[in-house]
Amino acid sequence: KTGRASRLERKKQEKDKEEDESKEEDSCSQQNRASRKKNYQQKNSDGKKAGEEGSRQRERGKKAPTKDQKESENKEKKTNKKEKEGDDKQKTDRKNSTTTSSNSSDEESLSEEELAMLMEQVEQKKKLISTMRNKPWRMMKKLSVLREAQAFVEKFEGALGKGKGKKLYAYKMMMAKKWVKFKRDFDNFKTQCIPWEMKIKEVESHFGSSVASYFIFLRWMYGVNLVLFGLIFGLVIIPEILMGMPYGSMPRKTVPRAEQATAMDFSVLWDFEGYIKYSALFYGYYNNQRTIGWLKYRLPMAYFTVGISVFGYSLMVVIRSMARNANESTADGDDDNFIFSWKMFTSWDYLIGNPETADNKFASITTSFKESIVDEQESNKDENIHLRRFLRVLANVLIICCLCGSGYLIYFVVKRSQTFSKMQNVGWYERNEVEIVMSLLGMFCPPLFETIAALENYHPRIGLKWQLGRIFALFLGNLYTFLLALMDDVNEKLAEEDVVKNITHWTLLSHHNSSVGNGSTATPPPLDPADVPRGPCWETTVGIEIVRLTVSDILVTYITILVGDFIRACFVRFMNYCWCWDLEAGFPSYAEFDISGNVLGLIFNQGMIWMGSFYAPGLVGINVLRLLTSMYFQCWAVMSSNVPHARVFKASKSNNFYMGLLLLILFLSLLPVAYTIMSLPPSFDCGPFSGKKRMYEVIQETIELDFPLFVAKIFSYVANPGLIIPAILLMVSIAIKISERAVAKLYRQL
Amino acid sequence: MEKVNRSRDKQKGKKDTTAEVFSHSQITRLYSRFTSLDKGENGTLSREDFQRIPELAINPLGDRIINAFFPEGEDQVNFRGFMRTLAHFRPIEDNEKSKDQNGPEPLNSRSNKLHFAFRLYDLDKDDKISRDELLQVLRMMVGVNISDEQLGSIADRTIQEADQDGDSAISFAEFVKVGKLHFYLLNETAHPCFLHTLT
C-alpha cells in the first residue's frame, strides 16, 4: 500500500513540475492505474504472481532515486524547449517502458484505450528515432536512447494489430522496415559502384573542370554502350548462337569453298573477312527462320525491334541527360556581381583535414583564380572592329575550302577503292586506302583549323565552340561522303544479286537433277553449303566497312595519343639536356590535352556505332571494349604526359553543347539506316530478312501470324496516313507547349 | 560531473550571456571537448593546443581563426572565452531575435557573425580590409602558383567589386553587402561543419 501511495505522490509531483502535455501524463497515469488494477487482480487470483509483483515493486522502488535525480536535473535546465521536450519524452518513455514491460504478460487482455496509448507511444518513439540526429546530445547518450527506443518499437509494434490481424500487421511492419533498409543499402551500393570517380577527381584537381568534363562524358558513354550491348547481345546474338542452326549447316553460315584456304589467315581476319565474316558478328549469319528453338523465339522480329530500340533508348538517354544539365546550369547564373570577392572569401572547404586533399584543394583554388583572370582579360579587350571582322571572314572562307577539299578527296578515294576491289592482287595499301585517308584527314585537319582560327581572336570558350563546330562539319562531311560512295556500291551489289540469284537457282536445280538422275528414289544428297554460289550480301558488306572504319579510327586515336603525347613528352624530357634550345619552353614542349578533338572523336565514334549496329551486331561489343580501355589509357596519358592548359577556362555549360551534338549525330546516323530499311530490298540469301521484299515486312508478318485477328485490323486502320499526320501534329504541339512552360518556369526562377 | 557543476555554477553566478546561449548539455559537451584539447590540464588552452586540430592546421586562415579565440595580448584562453567565441557559430534563431530588443545582441546574430568573419581578414583592426590584407589572404590561399602581379590584379578587382565609397578598402558595411557572403557564412552548412570540427 505504501508503495502505491508513494507512487501516486511521485506521479503528482511530476505532473506539477513538468510542463509536458497533460495528455501524455494522463495516459501514463491511466496506464499505471490500469496496470496496478490488473496487478492487484492478479495478485488475488494467482498466488504465484505475488512474487513477481513484489519484485516489480522493488524495481519501481529502485527507479525512484534515478527519477528524483532526473527531476532535479530538469529543474535546473534553462528554457530550451526542444531540449526539454526531448528529455521529457525520454523520461516518460523510460517510465512507460518500465511500466509497459510489466504489462508484457498482460498482452492478450489489452483494452482499446491501452492499445491507443501503446500506439501513441510507439509513434513517439519513432519520431524520436527519426529526429535523433539533430539532438545536441553526446554520442553515447544518443546511442543508448536510440537502442532503447528501437527495442521498444520492435517489441510493441507487433502487438498493435488486433487479434489474428496482429501477426499480419507485425509482418507488414517488418517488411516495411526491411524495405527501407534495403533501399538505403542499395543506394549506398549504387554510389559505391560509380566507377572511376577518384580517377576523375584527380584529373580534375590537376587539369581543371574542362578536361574532367571530357572524362565524365566518356564514362557516361560507357554506361550507354553497356546497356546497348546488353540489349543486342542478350536478345539477338545469344539466341542465334544457342538456338539457331550451327556454323556450316547453311550456305549463309559457311565460308565459301573458294575462300576456305585463306579463311584463317590473320590478314584476312584483320580485314574482317574469312571466319569472322561468317559469324554472329555480322548481319549475314542470321537465319530467316520465323521461330527458332523450343522457345519459338521470333528472331527476325527480335532483330528488327532491337535495331529500332537501340535508337529509341539512345534518344531517350540523351534527352534525359540534356534536361538534367539544363536544370543544373541555371543554378549558378546570378553570382556574376561579386566573382572575385566570392572566390576570395568563400573558396576554402572547412571540412578538409587531410594534407593531400588540402593540396588538391589549393590546386583547384589556383586553377579557379586563373580561370577568372582569363575571363576578365577577355572581357576587357577592345580592338579595331573592321580588321577583326575581315580576318574572321577570311578564316571562314579558308576553312570552307578545306572542308570541300576533304569531301572531294574522300569521294575520289572511295571510287578508286571500288575499282581496286574488282582487280586481283591488291596490296595492303589499296585495300585500306579509304580508312587511311579518312583517319589522316581526321588527324591533320583539326590542328589546321586551329591555326587558321588564330586569326579570329575569340574568347577561348567561344573559340572552342567554333573549333568544335568546324571539326564537326569535317567529320560529318567525311562520313556522309563515305556513305554516299558506299550507297553506290550497294546499288551495284543489288544489281549483281539478280544475276547471282539466277545462277544459284540453276545450280541447285542442276545438282538436284544430276543426283536424282542416278535412278534412285532416295532424296538427293544436299549440296555442300560451301559450294552453293553466294549472293553479294550487301548488308554484311556495309557492316564490314563500318566495322573496319571504326577499328582503324580506334587505332589511329591510340597511336596519336601514344606518339603525339607520350613519346613527345619522353623526348622533351630526356632530350632537353643535350639539345640546342629549350625543348620545354619552345617547340615542341609538352602537349596540352585536346578537349575538342577528343570529344568530337568520341561523338563520331558513337555515330558510327549507331549506324553500324543494325548491320553488324557485334560492333557494340567492340565499342564497349574500346571505351573501357580508352578510360584507363587516356587517364594515364593525361596524368603522365600532358600539362594543364596555359589558358584555363571553365567548362560551365559545355555539357549541353556536347549533348546537343550527340543528339544531332543520333539523327544523322538514324537517317541512312532508316533509308535502307525502308527502301532497299534485303539480300535473298543472307540475314534474318532474306526472302522478304522489304525489311519492315517482318512486322506485318508477326502481327498477322502471332497476334489475334483484331490486332491486325487495328494496325491496318492506324497505319492510315490520315490518322498518322494529325497524331504527329498533335505530338509536336504538345512538345511545344511543354517547352514553353519549361522556359516560363526558368524565367520565373531567375 | 563535478567539474561541470562547478564551472556551470561559476558561469551562472556571473550572469553571463554566453551560458544563456548554450543549453546545458551543449555546455557539457563543449567542456569535455575543452578538456580533451587541454593537454597541459591547467584549465586553459594555448595556441599549440588548437594547432593540434588537423582541420585548423591545414586551413590557410587557421592561424587567424585561432587568434580569434584569444583576447587582446593574451596567450591563454579559459573555458568561458572558448565558449564565447564558439557562440558565434550557433545557427541563428529568429524567434530569439524578436525576444529581447533592448538587451545586448546575442553572439550568434547575423551581424555578429559577419563581424567575426570580418575580423579574420582585418588584421590591423582598423575596420577596413586594405589591399595589402587581401594580398596576404590570397598569398595564403594559392601559395606561389600565381605571380605577384596577377595576385595584385585580383586584389584590385576584388576591391573594385566591393568598394562603394571609393576609399580602396573594404569596410564592414561593404563586406556585408557582398551578396551571397551572407548565405555562405550564415548558412547552416558552413556553421555546423565548423562547429563539428571543433567539437
From TrEMBL, chain A:
GO terms for molecular function: mechanosensitive monoatomic ion channel activity; voltage-gated calcium channel activity. Pfam families: TMC. One of its GO terms (biological process) is vestibular reflex. The chain crosses the membrane at residues 220-242, 301-319, 393-414, 434-455, 467-487, 614-636, 657-678, 714-736. Residues 1-112 are annotated as: Disordered. The keyword Ligase does not apply. It comes from the Eukaryota. One of its GO terms (cellular component) is plasma membrane. It is a multi-pass membrane protein. Residues 1-16, 45-58, 65-96 have a biased composition (Basic and acidic residues). Keywords: Membrane, Transmembrane, Transmembrane helix. Belongs to the TMC family. This is Transmembrane channel-like protein. It comes from Bubo bubo.
Automatic annotation (TrEMBL), chain B:
InterPro entries: Calcineurin_B_homologous, EF-hand-dom_pair, EF_Hand_1_Ca_BS, EF_hand_dom. One of its GO terms (cellular component) is nucleus. Residues 1-18 have a biased composition (Basic and acidic residues). CDD domains: EFh (cd00051). It holds the Pfam family EF-hand_7. Keywords: Calcium, Cell membrane, Cytoplasm, Lipoprotein, Membrane, Metal-binding, Myristate, Nucleus, Phosphoprotein, Protein transport, Repeat, Transport. It comes from Bubo bubo. One of its GO terms (biological process) is protein transport. Residues 25-60, 109-144, 150-185 form the EF-hand domain. Residues 1-21 are annotated as: Disordered. GO terms for molecular function: calcium ion binding. Its main location: membrane. It is found in: Cell membrane; Cytoplasm; Nucleus. This is Calcineurin like EF-hand protein 1. Belongs to the calcineurin regulatory subunit family. CHP subfamily.
